[in-house]
Amino acid sequence: MSIVETKKLAYEYIRRDAEGNVEGITRAVDDVTMNIHQGEFVAILGANGSGKSTLAKHLNAIFYPTEGSVFVDGKDTKDESKLWDIRRTAGMVFQNPDNQIIGQVVEEDVGFGPENMGVPTKEIWERVEESLRIIDMLPFRKMSPMKLSGGQKQRVSIAGVLAMHPKCIILDEPTAMLDPLGRKEVIRAVTALNQVEKITIILITHYMEEVIGADRVIVMDKGQIVMSGTPKEVFSQIELLKELRLDVPDVTMLAYKLRQSGLPIPRGILTQEELISEIEKLKVAK
Amino acid sequence: MIRDITIGQYYQTESVIHRMDPRFKIIATMVFIISIFIFTNPYIYIVASVFLGICIALSRVPFKFMVRGLKSVVMLILLTVIFNMFFIQGEPLFHIWKITISKEGVETAAYMAVRLIILIIGSSIMTLTTTPNQLTDGLESVMKPLKLFRVPVHEIAMMMSIALRFIPILMEETDKIIKAQTARGASFEDKNMIKRVKSLVPVLVPLFVSAFRRASDLAMAMEARCYRGGDGRTKMKPLKYHRVDFVGYVVIIIYFACIIFTGIYAHYLPFGEGL
User: Which of A23, A101, A265, B204 could disulfide-pair with A15, CB 3.0 to 4.6 Å?
Assistant: First the structure.
């Protein structure tokens, strides 16, 4: 069953000068058709300006398509009467952790979504506790978000979305402002959500290492989908990725170079373990 | 270092007054302020001061914190005293150069000073024993009747609590900007007052730009989490009156009755109609 579906989606930014005259039109998203199934972990990759964030904001009805349409759980995002249903079904986590935490205490922030939805007080507390437990932040519930690290703040944001019981969570570059440790922490939490809680994840990022665990990778460039497939399939095409100004993970790059210099190593190596076992195989063959 | 700043002047301790409902504290403070302004005679201030003393003792907040609140308004009190003393005409007491100081002037000045001091200490009991969060919650609830006059009560309370949340973030940001501008050669320690104010412009401009960006980000994040104003919203921590609060209401009513009683019958006492 598909949870998020876009049909020939296009979005145009209109740039205006000081007097309000149209200076130019930028087509940020152009003819995007995709279908994301319930329970899938999809990563959307792309360099800066590739339109991936604009696309993400359509999936939560923050932006409306200029052309084409977006369906979330079968509901058209253009239908205003379904707006709150859509936002509840598809929760969204943004890039800057400081700019999306509303509460002054962790648990209050997590309760913000359910409060807005009109959930009864007792159930709010249950939901807050449940979400914080899932995301492993329960010991921090009484703390001020100011005192948390970047990775912890992002996990609080994720818990805040989780408390709304969404079917799908869209993460718009959640790790862009974090240090490597925080990035790992967030990705681990997101992966667990997908595997344990069976929540559909749409992860938007430009870090290649983060998409290795995804079921499907969609690569965008100039507003269009240019590649789509499993991480292995996508990372096999290193030349194309380079052309799109995307970095491949170090291990994949190393494997690629080894292959270029004549060693029979298959394409699309994603992890260290994989590369090591391939090299071991070579030794045995010798 | 800047992360540990506390907003408002909340003093953390365990006391009856700390446990009371913010709505009660706001209403009680208002009643108290009204009570010291309806009558002018010394006995009122004695009753009010005794009541205030009991409250301070109950709140377990060290007295010096209350006095600290006074420091910032010393100028205001002095000005009131001076204006009242010099400009109210009446029975002359003594002359300094060409200015006559009247008996009425000294009297009114003294009353005003005592009133202001009691008022400020009284309201600082409220701010010292209530967290800013509780205070906004309480205000939202107390101001609810104003909704009839189309005052956006929920929105005001929401803005206040968001402002409280962003003060430390913006302070940190200011710190960063100052450092960045210092690194480029800006100086913020000029002796000349005008130059010093001017040197703040390169700090304020980026600060404002970033504050607006944050505001727009936050608005988007709030909408994404289904925020649509106060209608149909439930509360995670609804305010609930407890037994202490009812006792509190009874006490404040008795206090107010005492004030009215004293005010009406004070003229039977010596100096009851003024000193």
Answer: A23
What is the CATH number for A189? 3.40.50.300
Tell me the chain B residues in contact with residue A113 when contact means C-beta distances shorter than 8 Å: 225-226
Contacts of A99 in chain B (CB under 8 A): 214, 217-218, 221
Helices (H), ranges, chain B: 16-19, 22-35, 42-59, 63-71, 74-87, 103-129, 132-142, 153-183, 193-198, 201-224, 243-265
Please answer yes or no on whether A62 and B223 come within 8 Å at the CB atom: yes
Please indicate, yes or no, whether residues B124 and B30 belong to a single structural domain of this protein: yes
Is residue B2, in this structure, part of any structural domain at all?
no
| Domain tally, chain B | 2
Whether residues B234 and A147 touch (CB distance < 8 A) is answered with no
Structural domain count, chain A: 1
Considering the domain architecture, whether residues B11 and B125 belong to the same structural domain is answered as yes
Contact A87 B214 (CB under 8 A): no
Does B236 sit within 8 Å of A108, measured CB to CB? yes
For chain B (length 275 residues), average pLDDT per consecutive 10?
51 86 93 89 88 91 81 85 82 74 83 89 88 87 89 89 86 90 83 83 92 92 89 86 92 93 80 56
**B221 neighbourhood in chain A, CB within 8 Å:** 92, 94, 99-100, 102
A119 in a structural domain: yes
Task: Report the alpha-carbon distance of residue B17 to residue B211 in Å, rounded.
Answer: 36
